[in-house]
Amino acid sequence: MLAFNTTPRDDYAPFLLWFVSRQGRWPGSPFGYRVLSIIPAIPLFYILPFYKFSLLPGTNLTYLKATEALSAVSFLATAGAATVAFKMVRSKLGRGLGEAAFAAMLTIALAHFDGIGGVDPVGVLFVFVLLYCFERGEIFCPLVIVAPFANEKTLFFFLFLIAGRLIFVPSFWRSHIWQIAAVVASLAIYIIALKFSGLLGNEGQTELGRRLPLLLIVSKTSVSSLKGVVRNIVPVLIFAAPCLWFALRKKEANGLMTASDLAVPLGMLLVGLSFTEGVQVGRIVSYAMPLTIIAGVTLLGERDDEGPERYCIQAHRSGGVAEEISQSTERLSREEGRQAMGSGVRAGWSRR
Questions:
Q1: Are 3 and 67 in contact (CB under 8 A)?
Q2: Which domain holds residue 130?
Q3: In angstroms, rounded to a whole number, what is the distance separating the alpha carbons of residues 8 and 11?
Q4: Which residues, other chains included, contact 294 with Cβ-Cβ below 8 Å and sequence gap of 6+?
Q5: CA separation, residue 73 to residues 40, 66, 154 (Å)
Q6: Cβ-proximal residues to 322 (8 Å cutoff; 6+ apart), any chain
Q7: CA-CA distance, 127 to 144, in Å (whole number)?
């Protein structure tokens, strides 16, 4: 798909070529800050066998090889996210192999929404790993500080997650002061990079006066065309509905997610509406994928747990009814026996 340009995408091949041969170019903002999404493709550029297309003439082979390396990184990142999802369900939620495998397969299926041919899968992988290591400050803190330089949307994810928990989870700031400080530091470092790096191209995203007009324009586009519905509305429903269900049922925190984390898909929706143009909202909201999977598996496991419990209750009730019937039958048999004995005694006295 990438070689033939059959899907819209951000082209990072020139960025990779700048690293490997200096023949490309360093892109503008915000693409030029996503260095950590490009660096893993450098060794793949040299290692992977080159695949040529006979029906694709007139293409720069070096450019095609760079595109191939970036596609491999995207594939590996998606596989890595599925692996972390499997591990989350098994070790953090304590669910079975079937539910863990379901989480991994669901991750691969939902990866369609994060632009599997671009660099967003690397950002989503960062979110999975950071959420898995959230309680381990020695891993989370340094990793979240550099995460925006894989993709800045990882920073938005944890800003909304921290904000929701600070508001609704008692004493969260006391137990997670280092994680909060690391997220704030990550935001500060990224802002400093924006101010002093000199990369052009993000003027529309840094002007506060454009937020409301852009929000109204993208909202109208989302509901006024079939493409807008498919690319914006449907992904939002897919990623937000399980989180909303989790929050409305007031599920207990499970070590990975709390009801307040509904702020993440809603916040990512706001970012998509007010910071992007066209039909990009679904790709932005797809960064809430880990929470969608955790909520779905948790609620699915709850239904599975309720089944045997309901069966035991019904069996207990059935057993109680059967016992009552048995006791009634025994009482009836004793009464009939006493009546028969009384009739026999009366008949004996009559013969006398």
A1: yes
A2: 13-302
A3: 9
A4: 88, 89, 93, 254, 256, 257
A5: 7, 11, 18
A6: none
A7: 9
Residue 123, amino acid? G
Per residue in 5-42, pLDDT tens? 666 677 898 999 999 988 889 998 888 999 999 999 99
What is the DSSP track for 46-115? HHSPP---TT-TT--HHHHHHHHHHHHHHHHHHHHHHHHHHHIIIIIS---HHHHHHHHHHHHHHGGGG-
As a whole number of angstroms, the distance between CA 6 and CA 173 comes to 47
Q: 348 in the Ramachandran plot: left (φ > 0), alpha (ψ -120 to 50) or beta?
A: alpha
User: What percent of the chain is modeled with pLDDT above 90?
Assistant: 50
Q: Enumerate residues 6+ apart whose C-beta is below 8 A from 149.
A: 33, 34, 35, 36, 190, 193
Domain count, the chain: 1
Residue 56 pLDDT: 67
| pTM of the predicted model as reported, rounded to 2 decimal places | 0.82
Residue 100 lies in a domain: yes
Residue 116 is assigned to a structural domain of this protein: yes
Residue 126 lies in a domain: yes
Helix axes 120-132, 289-351, angle to 10 degrees: 50
Tell me whether residue 319 is in a domain. no
